[in-house]
């Protein structure tokens, strides 16, 4: 009974993270970002580094569903967007530390019709991000990294030229793309590392079934059979994100750079827990005046944010999505009505899944700093209801190979909702919480799932934890009726 209570409390933690989190990543979730893809935060990850337990890795992914073959310019970062990683370390829901990333684009070959060329027209293959071997890298991006802490601005790149890794055009143009990828990993000193570039999207979900009013594949999703639910190594439905790329910024810093007192703490101390989110911003006024350069005026205004996965996309009403995107987490109490009677739970009930009745206060109570993610927090430490991905830095990382896709729910305490790793199946975890596992694990603990258990491209086991971008020439997507579902007969993904 004690173990069951602990699991229910853990599940609560998972949902707490998201006063309204349900499935997974945020792809074109709000009207404002549907029309502004380069500022669209697709996923936010924060976890204790697997091989350096005294550090935290944060991953900000932006610009969803990038088709690897979509030249000639592919998908650079937007120089007019301010990309930010924000950390609250004193339980008040307000960022105390912000890491900022700004990009600059240069075109080296003004007369070239494409952004990248190699082994053609006198250009050697692209084998380097700078210097010899980079001649065909016409569209090239550099970036700078800064930290704002207690109002003090510090440039972490310290004059070092940092190059973003471009899209993987194909084997003729970029014959050793892995080498280019590795060149994009930079050591900034003081155990700070950074990477930015186009990568394989680590997110995994059966998007088509999910957004067809949870029309999961027959015999696959909806309610997973016990054997499938226990399987972390096969997919039983098509991963709609497979073969697509995303733009990724990855930062690893010492835990002592993030905690309120600059020290390491054990898991039972409240100072070990931080709240995190990623955000994008633009200047309040933008004047496009072609052929002259764009003119940006005024302070930066937030366009999009993400703490916990998919709150905005599947919980917040369309009329409030833009407001949610642009507002700060400390003000999230204004959106609580969407959680007290979530439409998603009603949809689950309509397809025969037992769900807890409204009002769903269980989905609100852990949107704060509370046990089990923060076992050292008392009622006065809870802070405001805020969409922050909370991470207990005192919980050691689970070794690669022993990590569980269901994270905290499967006894893997280093997984979602204690932060989020690329391997965490937030689709299945969060949907079970919406159904009511937080209220009563016996009555409402249905094994809901979409049948996609992992990213078929795999995961990185060391920094930067993301994988090189899929090839523009040779990329393959996985859809219904196609090969790619390793848990199905002949590996063919089901249509129904």
Description:
- By secondary structure, the chain is an alpha+beta fold.
- Helices cover 16% and strands 22% of the residues.
- It contains 12 helices and 13 strands.
- It has helices spanning 2-16, 31-34, 177-183, 207-211, 226-229, 311-314, 318-326, 337-340, 343-350, 362-365, 426-435, 441-444; strands spanning 41-48, 55-66, 82-88, 97-107, 139-149, 152-155, 162-163, 185-189, 192-200, 245-254, 273-287, 295-306, 389-392.
- The strands form 2 sheets. Strands 3, 4, 5, 6, 7, 11, 12 and 13 form an 8-stranded antiparallel beta sheet that branches.
- α1 crosses α11 (426-435).
- The longest helix is centred in the first third of the chain and has 15 residues, at 2-16.
- Mean pLDDT is 90; it is low at 1-24.
Terminal-residue CA separation: 39 Å
Q: Bin the helical content.
A: 10-25%
Radius of gyration: 22 Å
Give the topology string: H per helix, E per strand: HHEEEEEEEHEEHHEEEHHHHHEHH
Mean pLDDT: 90
Q: What's the structural domain tally?
A: 1
Count of helical stretches: 12
List the quaternary state of the chains.
single chain
């Amino acid at each position: 009974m004690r173990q069951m209570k602990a699991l229910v409390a853990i599940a609560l933690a998972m949902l707490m993270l998201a006063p309204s989190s349900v499935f997974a990543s945020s792809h074109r979730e709000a009207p404002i970002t549907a029309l502004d893809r380069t500022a669209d935060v697709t996923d936010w990850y924060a976890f204790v580094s697997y091989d350096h337990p005294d550090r935290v890795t944060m991953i900000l992914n932006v610009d969803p569903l990038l088709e690897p073959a979509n030249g000639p310019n592919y998908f650079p970062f937007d120089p007019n967007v301010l990309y930010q990683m924000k950390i609250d370390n004193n339980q008040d829901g307000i960022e105390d530390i912000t890491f900022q990333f700004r990009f600059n684009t240069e075109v080296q070959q003004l007369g070239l019709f494409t952004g990248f060329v190699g082994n053609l027209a006198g250009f050697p293959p692209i084998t380097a991000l700078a210097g010899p071997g980079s001649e065909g890298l016409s569209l090239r991006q550099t970036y700078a990294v800064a930290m704002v802490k207690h109002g003090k601005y510090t440039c972490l790149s310290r004059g070092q030229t940092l190059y973003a890794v471009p899209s993987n055009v194909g084997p003729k143009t970029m014959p050793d793309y892995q080498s280019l990828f590795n060149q994009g990993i930079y050591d900034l000193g003081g155990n700070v590392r950074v990477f930015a570039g186009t990568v394989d999207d680590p997110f995994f979900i059966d998007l088509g079934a999910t957004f067809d009013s949870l029309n999961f594949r027959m015999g696959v999703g909806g309610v997973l059979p016990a054997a499938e639910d226990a399987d972390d190594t096969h997919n039983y439905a098509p991963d709609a994100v497979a073969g697509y790329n995303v733009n990724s910024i990855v930062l690893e810093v010492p835990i002592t750079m993030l905690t309120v007192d600059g020290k390491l703490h054990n898991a039972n101390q409240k100072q070990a827990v931080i709240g995190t989110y990623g955000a994008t911003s633009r200047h309040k006024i933008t004047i496009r005046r072609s052929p002259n350069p764009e003119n940006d005026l005024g302070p930066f205004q937030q366009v999009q944010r993400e703490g916990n996965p998919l709150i905005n996309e599947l919980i917040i009403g369309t009329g409030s999505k833009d407001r949610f995107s642009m507002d700060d987490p400390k003000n999230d109490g204004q959106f609580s009505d969407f959680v007290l009677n979530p439409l998603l739970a009603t949809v689950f009930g309509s397809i025969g899944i037992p769900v807890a009745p409204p009002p769903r206060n269980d989905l609100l109570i852990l949107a704060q700093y509370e046990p089990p993610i923060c076992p050292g927090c008392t009622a006065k430490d809870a802070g405001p209801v805020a969409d922050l991905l909370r991470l207990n830095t005192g919980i050691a990382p689970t070794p690669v190979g022993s990590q569980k896709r269901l994270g905290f729910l499967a006894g893997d305490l280093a997984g979602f909702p204690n932060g989020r790793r690329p391997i965490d199946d937030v689709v299945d975890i969060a949907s079970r919480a919406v159904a009511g596992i937080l209220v009563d694990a016996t009555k409402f603990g249905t094994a809901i799932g979409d049948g996609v258990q992992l990213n078929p491209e795999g995961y990185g086991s060391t920094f930067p934890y993301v994988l090189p971008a899929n090839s523009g020439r040779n990329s393959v997507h996985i859809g219904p009726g196609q090969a790619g579902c390793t848990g199905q007969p002949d590996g063919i993904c089901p249509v129904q």
